[in-house]
Amino acid sequence: QVQLVESGGGLVQAGGSLRLSCAVSGIIFRFNAMGWYRQAPGKQRELVATITTGRTTKYADSVKGRFTISRDNAKNTVYLQMNSLEPEDTAVYYCNTDNSYLPWGQGTQVTVSS
């Protein structure tokens, strides 16, 4: 059974940091490029960052230089280190493959106060 379990969100002040984790089960994790997505209230879900099986990374312009995606294939886990957080980063954050073909998890709420 495929399962994506995101964690690590919370309430943080602007300028602060959070590290999100996503535990993946039910797929051969190391064979899949992964991504982090977010959905702010009233907005569509957007792709924030991706990491290939070879650990090549890409970022949305809005988070470039502040967020870092990484993966641990031994733990079937993908991470998102978020630094210099801004109120505009407030959203529910989700992980999925880079083409989002898996069922979505519950996400983890990130709230950045000004």
Helix segment tally? 0
Q: What structural category do the secondary elements indicate?
A: mainly beta
Helical proportion, percent range: under 10%
Question: Quaternary state, please?
Answer: single chain
Percent strand equals over 45%
Largest sheet: 6 strands, mixed
Strand-and-helix sequence, N→C? EEEEEEEEEE
Overall morphology: globular
Mean pLDDT: 97
Task: Report on this structure.
The chain has 114 residues and is an all-beta fold. It is built from no helices and ten strands. The protein has strands at 3-7, 10-13, 18-25, 34-39, 46-51, 57-59, 67-72, 77-82, 91-97, 108-113. It has a six-stranded mixed beta sheet with strand order 2-10-9-4-5-6, with no helix packed on it. A four-stranded antiparallel beta sheet has the order 1-3-8-7, with no helix packed on it. β7 and β8 form a beta hairpin. The mean pLDDT is 97.
What secondary-structure arrangement, pairings included, does this model have?
Layout (H helix, E strand, L loop, with lengths): L2 E5 L2 E4 L4 E8 L8 E6 L6 E6 L5 E3 L7 E6 L4 E6 L8 E7 L10 E6 L1
Provide a brief overview of the structure.
With 114 residues, the protein is an all-beta fold. It is 0% helix and 50% strand.
Name a few traits of the molecule.
mainly beta; 114 residues; six-stranded mixed β-sheet; 10 strands; four-stranded antiparallel β-sheet
